[in-house]
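Assemble and predict.
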Amino acid sequence: MSNVLVWVIWLAAAAACIGTGLRVVTASNPFSSALSLIGNLASLAVLYLLASGEFVAVAQVLVYAGAVMVMFLFVIAYLGGRADAPWAGGTRLFQTASVITAASLLAVTLVAIMLDAGDRLSDEADISRAFGSPAEIGRLFLTDHLLAFEITSIVLLVAAVGGVVLGMRSEAEERADAEGAQ
Amino acid sequence: MLGPGVPWYLAISAILFATGIAGVLLRRSPLIVLLSLEIMLNAANLAFVGFSRLFGELDGQIFALAVMAVAASEVCVGLGLIVAMARRNLPLDVDLFTELKG
């Protein structure tokens, strides 16, 4: 692919990424927030692809934009109108402070990147074609990062059990429901 | 490397992270707070993938995948909490959750 084409794709993905990100935070309807987050995750997957992260990009679309966001949409649908909380919270002072916090963190990070961009950040290492491929990621996961891989499975299992426990109905609730039905 | 260099990826990552922070601090719905948290996690992932490309080491991408798994667990527990709160008829507004206040 030519350099110009990659730039065009990158700029489109980056603009979509920032736009949908802002929409997630500003939308008043939680449904449009969640749908914008799907767009955000998909455009991030394009950025991963352009940075030679093929497997991460595919996992992003499958796991994040697919599974996780469907769960989100189900919960929003289940909550219905209750999901619409008032837009912003706290006093006017707190809101101003929040925006200043976010903006100053952004400014500091961007200045740090720009100061460093000239030398250390711009000479990328040479990579082989296998960089970021499923085979290479799988090899690393089962050799160098085996412990992280196993711990991840335990974390997922514990989270699944936690989800079930949180979703269980307590006996008091059952009794209250039974009384309510009579 | 074709297209923009690594600093551009890091800039996008910084912008996304700031967006996420603003969302977490400003919004009152716990659902939107969770969505903003996802944005912050993904901003970190983008930086991981960018640095992984810079140094030519795949460890950054491995870490990004681990972050994805942790984010999935976090969503599972977070949504479980929100549903449990909704079933107990608590208001879904983070400004009103003050029972654990010290």
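Chain B has a mean pLDDT of 89.
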